[in-house]
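Hi,

Apologies if this is the wrong queue. I'm a grad student, and the batch job for HEAT repeat protein from Collinsella stercoris DSM 13279 produced an output file that my downstream script rejects. I'm not sure whether the problem is my script or the file. Here is the sequence I used:
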Amino acid sequence: MAEESAVELTPEEAARLASVENSADALSALIDDLSSSSRRTRQLAARVVNLLAQREPEMLVPFIEQLVDALYRPEAQTRWEVLDALTLLAPGNAKECGAAYEGAESALFDEISAPLRLSAFRFLTVWGATERRRSEKVWPIVDEAIQCYHGDLEYRDMLALLFAFAHGQIAGSVAAELAGRLQFDAENGKGSYLRVRSREIYDALVKRFKLDNPQKRVRAKKSNADDEDEE
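Support response: The file is valid. Your script probably expects a header line. Output copied below for reference.
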């Protein structure tokens, strides 16, 4: 059982969660509600999907395709709740969750919703850390996001996610460019958390990958892995 967030549920959320945990028909109805014409219905369904992923993620594995489809709903909350659910599924179902890449990329650069951007960043770093080729696929847009959101409030959380990413199954080339990207903040970052966290990631990468003078990514060019089918 996955660890559940310490969040107080509304009576409606609690009742819906209890029903889907005990009924296959209720679970199917919940997934169908992700495609409802009602925005409120979609948001509630997505919220319960996220809660279920925290408690019983294996129950959602047969519905990954429908979760990926829900990333194209117009409202931000449905998308971030589903991205958070897919993040919990990704380590054990990375191949299937790869279909969420395009939806996550779009969410990562949403111009309005910071929670949506952060959820997309979380999914991409978790999924990318499952295998070296996947890390190469996500790295160009993760690197772009680091530059875009460096001064934003959510960047503190992004650094924590980068710390986990740096300890995942990432390619040496990705590790070198990530270290190069964070080197300035590791040495000169404004604010103790920014500097200390960047230094922790930088030092871990240098030690683990035996890096010598790592350089940040200099070209905004998609990886060849973007054009390859997910294995």
